[in-house]
């Protein structure tokens, strides 16, 4: 539906105030008018009816979006996300259910706004599961009234929302945290400017010098092995390569014994002697 119908949006009118005036100027529908338009859309696929249903409810989206102004996000963006929810609701609205479109659409509008808030309120998403999302928005409302929770209030909120006290404390901690830039330069040059995490975070899992040492030793050992192999006779070289260096198709002692017309024990002895020579050459 969003592709077939061009709905008025904030950016097309230049500013939010102009947009709000435009959507408030669109006449509201009576119950009979709404029912007739919904039936035309539902049974006939009438896109003009869908457009009228959407335009007449844009003011309601603005009203819902204003309730989420405390999250530090642009109101215009919240309204646009709510409009997406409204269009989804109109597309799914069944006029035979017997409820007004606004009662059906409010859930879709809030769902889109909720998802947008959770994606953009912090760099790191604070809520991922359905239970965490419910806890996040309910906790926001409760904290406006109570402020920082004491233990009794934590238990009360947990009991009302049907979650554990631990979940409430964890979400409260997530909500109180602030995003910190990794920019190596402080925002200003004052002495009180907080340092970026790049100044004090360390990666204890990595040892740069050790990695370089291992790489250098690997190259050195490979070079010495190559030189040591050249000092072996052709048969011993073949046995070592077939047994240890051809990882995709390791040859058995029996196969080499058949190739050289000797016993498998003799191949084992040749392999042992060759490995001893290689080890001695590398360890020097």
UniProtKB/TrEMBL annotation:
Keywords: Cytoplasm, DNA-binding, Sigma factor, Stress response, Transcription, Transcription regulation. One of its GO terms (molecular function) is DNA binding. Residues 253-272 bind DNA. Coiled coil: none annotated. A motif (Interaction with polymerase core subunit RpoC) lies at residues 77-80. It comes from the Bacteria. Its main location: cytoplasm. SUPFAM superfamilies: Sigma2 domain of RNA polymerase sigma factors, Sigma3 and sigma4 domains of RNA polymerase sigma factors. Residues 53-122 are annotated as: Sigma-70 factor domain-2. Interacts with the RNA polymerase core enzyme. This is RNA polymerase sigma factor RpoH. It comes from Candidatus Erwinia haradaeae. The gene is rpoH.
């Amino acid at each position: 539906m969003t592709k077939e119908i061009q709905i008025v949006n904030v950016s097309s009118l230049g500013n939010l105030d102009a947009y709000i005036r435009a959507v408030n100027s669109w006449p509201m529908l009576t119950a009979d008018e709404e029912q007739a338009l919904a039936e035309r859309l539902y049974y006939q696929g009438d896109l003009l009816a869908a457009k009228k249903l959407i335009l007449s409810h844009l003011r309601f989206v603005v009203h819902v979006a204003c309730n989420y102004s405390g999250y530090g996000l642009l109101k215009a963006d919240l309204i646009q996300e709510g409009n997406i929810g409204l269009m989804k609701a109109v597309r799914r609205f069944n006029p035979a259910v017997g409820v007004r479109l606004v009662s059906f659409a409010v859930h879709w509008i809030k769902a889109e706004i909720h998802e947008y808030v959770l994606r953009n309120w912090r760099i790191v998403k604070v809520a991922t599961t359905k239970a965490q999302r419910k806890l996040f928005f309910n906790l926001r409302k409760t904290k406006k009234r109570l402020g920082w929770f004491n233990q009794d209030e934590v238990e009360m909120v947990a009991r009302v929302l049907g979650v554990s006290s631990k979940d409430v404390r964890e979400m409260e901690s997530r909500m109180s945290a602030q995003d910190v830039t990794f920019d190596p330069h402080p925002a200003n040059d004052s002495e009180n400017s907080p340092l970026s995490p790049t100044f004090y975070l360390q990666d204890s899992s990595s040892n740069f010098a050790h990695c370089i040492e291992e790489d250098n030793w690997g190259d050195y050992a490979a070079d010495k092995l190559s030189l040591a192999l050249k000092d072996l006779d052709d048969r011993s070289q073949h046995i070592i390569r077939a047994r240890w260096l051809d990882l995709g198709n390791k040859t058995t002692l029996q196969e080499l014994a058949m190739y050289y017309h000797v016993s498998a024990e003799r191949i084992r002895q040749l392999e042992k002697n060759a490995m001893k020579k290689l080890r001695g050459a590398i360890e020097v």
